[in-house]
Amino acid sequence: MTLAHLSIDDLKAQARRLRDAMTAAGTPVSHGRALELVAKSHGARDWNTIAALGSRADNRPAAPTTVGAVVTGSYLGQRFRATVLSLKKLSDSDFYAITLHFDEPVDVVTFDSFSAFRQRVNGTVDSRGVSPRHTSNGEPHIVLDL
User: InterPro entries this protein is in (predicted)?
Assistant: First the structure.
């Protein structure tokens, strides 16, 4: 059973709609019974079980951005404006794999005599848009302006 996309409010709204529909069909049920029926429809043993799962889903951080969004931030210390090409939640962690396409290539080398430009990069960010990986000076690889 996966309820990652459902909140407690979503589940309660389903129960209200079910109760209203059953009443309109001539079979009124109490709100409590409607909650139990919604829980069973999602494969849970009872309302308390699904409410506990829904609560955990409500407390998960939201994704930092969406696919197709235009974002700004810094990559290896260089400012950028980019389009998010992909964003995928990494299993049961609070991290996301992200692919960015920079409007203008970013020079990722800090030496004056050498340059290496990147226009598309892959990385990992948390729900705040900050990479868990850091450069040698302690700066996160990716920081999105949220």
Answer: Glyoxalase_8
**8 A C-beta contact, residue 142 and residue 131:** yes
Q: Spell out the residues 6+ positions from residue 81 whose beta carbon is closer than 8 angstroms to its own.
A: 70, 71, 72, 102, 103, 104
Domain edges within the chain = 8-59, 70-144
Q: What residues pair up with 123 in beta bridges, in sequence order?
A: 98
What 6-13 contacts at long range (C-beta under 8 Å, 24+ apart), as own/partner pairs, is 6/42, 6/54, 6/57, 7/54, 7/57, 7/58, 8/51, 8/54, 8/55, 8/58, 10/54, 11/35, 11/38, 11/39, 11/42, 11/50, 11/51, 11/54
Average pLDDT of the residues of the chain: 86
User: Six-digit token pair at 22?
Assistant: 């059953």
Give the predicted TM-score (pTM) of the model.
0.60
Distance from C-alpha of 80 to C-alpha of 21, rounded to nearest angstrom: 52
Largest distance between two CA atoms of the chain: 81
Q: Give residue 1's pLDDT band: very low, low, confident or very high (50, 70, 90).
A: very low
